[in-house]
Amino acid sequence: MVSEKREGVWDSKMEWTREERYKRMEDVPEAYMSELTKQVSAGPYRQKFHIQPKTGLLNDPNGFSYYNGQYHLFYQWFPLGPVHGVKYWYHVASDNLVDWQDLGIAMEPDTAYDSHGVFSGTGFVENDQLHVFYTGNTRTEEWTRIPYQCHAIMGSDNQIKKDAEPVISDSPIGYTDNFRDPKVLEQAGRYYCIIGAETSDHQGAIAYYVSEDLKDWTYQQAIALKGNVASENQGFMWECPDYFELADQGVLLFSPQGMEPEGDAYHNIYQSGYLVGEPLDFATGEFQVTETFNELDRGFDFYAPQTMTDPQGRQLLVGWLGLPGVDCVTDAFGWAHCLTIPRELSLQNGQLYQRPVPELAALRGKAVAKEMKLENEALLVTDFSARTYELKATFKDIKGTRVGLAFRKGAAEATSFYYDLAAKKLVFDRSQSGKSVTDEYGTVRRCDFSEEELEIHLFMDESSVEIFVNDGLEVFTARIYSQSDQNQVEFFADGQASVTATQWEI
Q: Which fold has domain 4-358?
């Protein structure tokens, strides 16, 4: 029977009990979803060029792949409200990584092996079919979790058919029920599946399996990290593992939970980062690490990234522009979170560089260019007046203690990004950005930086910003909830700098 709270319109103050979180769409009246959809679309902070849910909560990107002439991207979705409830896979597709076609629900929690959520997974193209691997989340009557690794196939009609049985049942001995997020890849004619895990002694790990046919999988072991690896503060659970090779080196991505802050690093509730080393030896399970764990993104809102290799040979990444366990300003309007713009990866000197894919230039509208010389001053560029935009700015001939810019600026608000030359740090400050519900994790992010020039490439949507520094050397991603009239851009220098900047309206 539908509870009374579900019979009316959306109520931001409603109590989300376990029962409410595990209702499915067919359990609520059509009128509820219709009203919620209207309220979300009419509310503030809706994005212009990011993938976002039409209602409810979006989280991890899933199944990122290129199939049948299109890029396919799925995401975790709870449709009934801005909380983590029973998860669906939602499907979008694109010819160009810019314009995304809404293909609706791809998979529902409708079998005995995914009754409590179609959790995260991957897409793998083989024999003109998209093979989908995902974690089926189930609960017993005592609420004990039992994870299953499941397989499904999508054909050219974009319809997904699940296998009747899981391909991997439960978790192996030595692991807890935190065992999820399969990523499938092929090496030398064999298939491997890596899975995020928590060991029985509460350490993060990545388990891996091998298969000859994508159906029958044999457990091997946890990937053994050797070499330049920290012995402590590695977290208790490693979610969303990914592996690929660039420049003849192996890159292992994962999202650890439970890392403690260290200096400027690890200040979000959970992290996402990577290790670089010699190519992973799947025969022995050893990964010889040459570069220690490094955060992928230095901002406030980034998690669970997933990559794919496209037909051009590019390694592309999309992440969740949000975090688990953190409230969102848009919760009050019935929805939460979005995905990042697609990024192209490269490996230079042991570090991943992330650049916005060049296809995003198709979003550009009116351009305004400015040149300025700053000397102990702040200069408001009144011609930079767009609300949503792409901006490129280069600071040269830098002297003094601080250079940077403030955006989404007005009488009451501003978001600042600058180079602190004295401390040799990049600084991202959203303490005055507008509404926020996550101040418990701090309002400033920093990282080391000591370059002669500062290049900022910024994408500002209605309620998010992604900042790429010096051709993708560092990236800062965050949600920004500013008032609609706070749109000014100001450049400043405590010292001297020559600045060239262009803003494209989107």
A: Tachylectin-2; Chain A (2.115.10)
